[in-house]
Every structure is written in C-alpha cells, then in structure tokens.
Amino acid sequence: MQFSESIFATRFAIARQDLENYLAEALSQGGDYADLYFEYLLTSSISIDESMVKSAAQGVSMGVGVRVIAGERTGYAYSDDLAPEKIRKAARVAAHIAAGPGKPGSFGLNEGAAHNLYPVVTAPTETAFSERVELVKRADRAARASDPRVFQVQAVYADNLRHTLVATSDGVLALDRQPLARMSVWALARQDGGPPQRGHAGGGGRVELGYFLNEKTPEYFAREAAREAVAMLEAVEAPAGEMTVVLGPGWPGILLHEAVGHGLEADFNRKGVSAFSGRIGQKVASELCTVVDDGTLTGRRGSLNVDDEGRATRRNVLIENGVLRGYLQDRLSSTLMRSESTGSGRRESYAHIPMPRMTNTFMLAGQSDPEEIIRSVPKGLYCVNFGGGQVDITSGNFVFSASESYMIEDGKLTRPVRNATLIGNGPEALKYVSMVGNDLRLDEGIGTCGKEGQSVPVGVGIPTIKIDRMTVGGTA
Amino acid sequence: MSENHLSGLAHDLVERALRAGASDAECTIAEGEEFSVNVRMREVESLKEAGSRGAGLRIMKGKTTGASYTSDLSREGLDRLVAAAIELAEITTGDPHAGLPGPEELGSIDGDLGLYSADVEGLETERKIAAARSAEEAALTADPRIFNSEGASFETHVGRHIFANSRGFAGEYRSSYCSLSTAPVARDGESMERDYWYTLARGFAGLEPPEEVGRTAARRALRRLNPVKMPTQKVPVVFEPRTARTLLDNLFDAVHGMAIYRHESFLTGKLGEKVAGENVTVIDDATLPGLFGSSPFDDEGVPSRRTVVIERGVLKSYLMNTYAARKLGLKTTGNASRGLTGNAGIGHGNLYLEKGVQSPEEIIAGVSEGFYVTELMGFGVNIVTGDYSRGAAGLWIRNGELAFAVSEVTIAGNLRDMLRDVEIVGADLEFRGSVAAPTLKIGEMTVGGK
Questions:
Q1: Which of A120, A149, A345, B397 matches a 20 to 30 Å C-alpha distance to B353?
Q2: What's the whole-model pTM score?
Q3: In this predicted model, what pLDDT tens digit does every residue of A422-439 receive, in sequence order?
Q4: Secondary structure of residue B92 in the 3-state scheme
Q5: Per residue in B411-434, pLDDT tens?
Q6: What is the full DSSP assignment across A5-27?
Q7: For residue A306, what are the contacts with CB-CB under 8 A and spacing of at least 6?
Q8: Is the dihedral of CA A389, A448, A217, A200 positive or negative?
Q9: Which residues make beta-bridge pairs with A59?
Q10: B81 chain-A contacts, CB cut-off 8 A
Q11: How far apart, in whole angstroms, are the C-alpha atoms of residue B233 and residue A179?
C-alpha cells in the first residue's frame, strides 16, 4: 500500500511532510529516536445466547501515539484526536523526556518492501452484518443438534480491521491493514439432571469471511464445543503430583508460550530479571526440541506484515535442538543490547508503549508416531485442550490449565479427568521431553497474550510430545 | 472540550437516537487523563501522559437492541455512531426480557462519595518521580540480597463518567486515583525471586509512605528465596489477604446473575441455602466513601447500594443488572457494569468478606503442618463445577511458624467444599482495591508437588 492511498492520507488529510514535522517536534528537545504510530480500528461483535441474538455492537477507535527515546528513557504521549495541533501537542509532551538541543530534521521517510501475509480483499469487518449474524445462529443450532445432553449454547463472532501507519526518525514509513476475525462457541451439557459441564471451541485468523463458510465452519466449532462438554460429563478427579504428561498437538503449544516464550522477551533479559537471562548457548531443553517464533505465517492470528515499530516480522529461532539461541527484540532493547530488532515490537494500541512480544510460537515436528507416544506411557496424563496460562518470569515457574484431559493407563487412553493446572519451571521443564511427534499442528486461532496490561493476538503450536516429569494439580 | 459540552452530548445522542427510530436509548461518555512514570535502578525509564474520551450508545427498537461506540467525536464520527446502533437492531432477536430499567428504579445516591481528590491534578511531575524513586530505593537498600529491580511506578488517573438515558436519567461523576508500586528482585546463590507491593488511594495524601511500600516489597521478595517443592499431600491452607481476595473474585463469578440464569455456576439455585461456613459473611457495597468500588449509580442509572451476598454461610443474593434480574424474576441489585460498548454486564462494588477476630499470627500459630499461600498463578477455576486448581507459592507452616519458602506447587479442591471448609476468618481486613478479604484458613486442600 502506498502512503497516498492510506486512510490517514485520504480521510485525515495527513501529508508526508506532516509526518516529518511531527517527528521533528518530537525530537525538538533532543533524544535518539522518535516514532509515530497512527491507528484507525473498526471492531464488531455479535453474540447469541439461548438461541437469541442478544447483542450486536460495532465501534471506532482511533488515535496516534508519539514516542521519544533518549538513552534508556522513553517519553510517550497520545491523542485520540488527529487534528494537527493535537498531534503536535502530543509530540511536545513526549519530547520532554530528553533534555538537549533539538535535531534539525529531515528523516527521508520511505516505504520499504513489506510482506503480504493477509491478502484479504474484503475484510470480514467490511461485509454485511446480515451475513455475519448467520455464523452465530448456525453455531447455536449445530451445538444443540449435535447431542441431546447439550442444554445451553453461547456463541460470539467478533472481528476487527486495524489500519496502521508507523513513521520513525530512522526513515521507516510502514503502512498496514490488519484484518482479524474469531468465532467462539461454549456449550453446557448435563445428563439426567446431574451437574453440568462446559466445553469450548473457537478459531479464526487474519482471514476473509469465506474462511468461516468454507474451511472452519460454525458447525465445526459447535460440534467440537459440544463434544468436549459431553466428554467431560464422565470426568473423574484429576491426579495430583509428578507424572508423565503427553500433550496433544495444537493449542497445548501454550506450554511453549509460557515456559520459554515470555522468558526470552528481550526487555526482561536486558534487565537481567528473567530465569533465562545470560543463558544463550546453554542447554535448556532436550535435543528433540526446536522452538521458533514466526510472525510470517500466512493468515495466522499472530502474524503481522510489520511489527508495531514498522519492522518486517520474521522467523526467529528461540531454541535449536535444545540449545537457547536468541531473544525476541524490539527497538529499545536491541539498541541497548547492541543487537538487532527481530520484528517483535508490538503494542495493544496507539495508547500503549511497544515492547518485545511473541507472534506465533511453536515447536517443530519430530519423528515419533503420536499413537506410539501414548502407547509408551504405562501411567500418565494426556492433555488435549487448555484454558489460559501464566508465568513468573524471574523464578521461571509457569502454569497452564488443562480443560480436557484423559488418564493414560497401560498405553491406552482411559477416563477423562476434571480440570487441573499443570506447573513447571521454564528452563527445566523441556529437558524432560523424551518424544516429539511428527504431527505438528498450529492452534485454531484463539490466543490472546497479556503482558503488563497490554493484550495482543498470538498463535501457538506443537506436535504431540511426551514430558517424562511434570506436576499435575489434581485432587486424587 | 468544555465540561458542559460532554454532559450535553450524552443527552443529545439519546435524542438523536430516538429521532432516528430508536424506542429507547442510553449513552455513556467517558473522559480521562492518565499519567505514569516508571523508575528503574534509580533512573527514570519512561514517562507517559495523555487524555482520551469516547462515547458509547445502546438503543432499543422494540425488543431488539443495537450498540456502538466511538473515540471519533467529530460530526461525521457521531453521525456514524447513531446510524451504526440503529442498523444493528435489525440483526438482533426480539428478547422479551431486554430493555432499560423501569423509571422507578433509576436514580443516584446523595452525598459526596469521595471519589475525586483535587490533589491528583495539581501534582508536579517531580513529586511523582520522587515517590517512585523513594519506593525503589527503599527496596534496593533493604538487604544486600536485593540485587536488581523491575522498577517502581507511579500512576495517576482522573476521569469523568457521564450517563444519560431516554427514561429521563442523567448523571455524572468525577473520579481520581493514584498508585505507587515497586517490584524488587532478590538473589541468593542460584535462587532468584521477585515480588511486589503497592499502595493506592483516591488522592496523593491517601498513599502509604513510599519507603514502607519499598520495604514491604523487599521483605516479600526475600522470603521467597530458596524455595522447596513439597511432596504431594493434603494439608490446611492459609491464604494471606492478597490471595484470599482472589477467592472472592471466584465467588463473584459464581453469584454473577448471567452465570446463574445460564446454569453456569455451581451456586445456581442455591438462594437461601447454606453454602459456606457460619463464619462467612460476604457484602457487596458500592456506597462506601472513598473506596475503589464505589459510585453514585450503576452503569444503567440505578442507584448504588449495599447487598448482602452471603450471611453467616447462607446465600442471600446474587449480583444482578436489570436483564439478569428479569431473567431470574428478581430485582436488579444495581450491579450493572459496562465499558463504552454493548449491553450492560455485571460488576461488583466493594466486595468483601467480613472480618473475624484472630490475627494472622494467631491463625498461623494454630497450624502444625500447612501451607501459607502468598501467590497464585493461572486460571484453573471452573465456575460451572467449582473445580479449583491453581499454581501456588508461599511459605510452609511447621509447628505454628512460617518455616521455609515453597514454590512450583499446585493447590486444588472444589469451591463448594472450600467455602464450607473455611475454618477461620482473620481480623486483618483492609481495602487495597475493590475486592478485599482478611487472612483465611481452609481446613484441607491438596497440595500437588513432588
């Protein structure tokens, strides 16, 4: 996309020279670097509950964030009004972080080559509501039809379209149009008046509406949610203590996000507060483990053509055959660590300061047949679906909560077990990975990662893996 | 933009929605200014300052509804806001229970709730930086094992909340808060641990001294050093106030009116029944002056109030907005909560567990072998079933004393049993946020470890 075609030029009449002027204002007190992040975000959501479409909402959020970096210091201000005097005021406020002579500015802003990872002609947000509302109605009908024990269904379809413009004093001018859509279905099932159980499924990505019509349909998510709810009706108490854990493929990759991903974000390592600090080149996982963070996968929820600092995203190897290879860098940390940005600078919105974040984090496939992995376990737990997770960066301890899992007894899956939290220590947990399946799968596209109050969409993935030792937090 | 302009705008948007074909409308406008400074290793790391505002509109067209929001308050942006809400009413389903509160239910409580303190606005940047520096300095110098820091931050927020609807309600209030926190990192040999502490208040004058915040944060980080992973066992569990409070968050989810009518809570249908120990009384009160969950009216224009949720173990009330109350054949408890967009959800005011008589020291002294939980991790609480399983860290209690640090373990049980098994409620209730609980002892839970 050319600057002259962007919404910021056409609707808000911002000219290239204006960007130069705002950057000059931002650096008027000195400072090493400044950037502008313009955002125009359209959102919509539709939800169904008790077979009634009870809520439909759409919104517009727009603004610009101005950042000035002077040494290790960051000044930040934003405005939700794109009038020139408001942007200049934000630039002056951000400028206060520096204390020196201003730099005369011509920054030579130039659009570089960029990925085209979501060639979406019509974003879902731009389609008729009458089409989108059918998705939640279909999900509701399908979940109810799939099993008579299902008695409550909720479905939410939500999408957004984010227009961004990044201009930096390094001369970067990056534009992007980021579509994102997601569908979620929850089903409650009960048997003979007994206590209910819940199942959940969902997915999406940076896709066209056709994705939900042709590839992953409302019926697909609905049946999956209903299946999980019904399966859990038979669940017995989860075991407690250390045991062998097998993770199924896909969403269980949240293990990697919590166990290693966050701990490898460069800000924590620059400050020396991560359990992984100073461990590059050391063995932190079994040789079977290679973990990457890749923002360049077509159409994925965690993918971006450019990060929120205007850098092209890329594929970053975090762990290679068990050895720690690198951190996820943004501009500030990479400059201070004398490294380079890995295209990992992300922010929730124009009102937020960017920081190193993950995109799509996954483990590469291994050699083992997934069925053989389960057969190899005399007694353990097989986890196929999870809720959220969390990590304490400094101690390295992390948790993730299994929402659907089964006992493995004598190499066979037996009973489903109730929700249990799994806990481990980041630099240690992956050392116990003894088998890695050949069935790498990425998740369906439902992940949202929170860090220091900022939420961004992410993806995860993993093949079936066997971890010889992990603590399971059940009651039995 | 002048103050009167925004108040007038809410009313104006309601009128415009009615003219565009809505049978009812409600409009929320929020305006705020935020400031934050982070100091790390004695240097200013970041300064952030900005103001923002936005408008949200929800309309009814008969029994269908539509909603929209915008931060674009230009003429074009507002035209779009009204048109979008009206358009969306075409795709929603007529719902007999949907609609605004009745006129007799609307209103606002009288008197100054102390939500706004003028000293926040005039505060010089240098004083805010100084407060953050002092807190971090106190932590860094508390002990030689404090070797690093994630920094200290000082934040202020000043806001205005305006609400108007087509049933004649118009109200607004200003609020402010400031907070100071610091997160030191301690090391001893291979062991590295961090913790944090904070203070927050409606005004600067209400904050605790920065040095005290820093020393408390340091003490908390230090006591976590060299943790042990305990063998799996069933023991009494004592929650300190910071973790006990999270059990009230779980309870809130379980008495949430929406969860009740959908049968998504283990407390569905338990009104009037004994669900907890005799020593458990839980109150939601949005009328307590100066506290963080207080407000003169809820987000549907219903006056705030005090609701007894659990009284001596008996479930007395769910927490509801107008919609959930109608679904359940009950009256709203004034707990409607919303951002700028969509239908009203449900929130709490100041939700707290009434205090008992024993000090935390007395409670600990009565435990021969148990787990004192200072940190909980993850999301392993299922409100449908009550199943509870979370990551935990803290201190092991041996012979009535805090003996050594414990980490990388889980605690598990079921909320249904945990509520009944509350053996002791402490006397140390204090509000550090809108949810508060004193130290709490639960008779037995499963600690998952080695």
A1: B397
A2: 0.96
A3: 999 999 999 999 999 999
A4: coil
A5: 999 999 999 999 999 999 999 999
A6: GSHHHHTT---HHHHHHHHHHHT
A7: A114, A115, A166, A174, A176, A312, A313, A343
A8: positive
A9: A43, B69
A10: 60
A11: 49
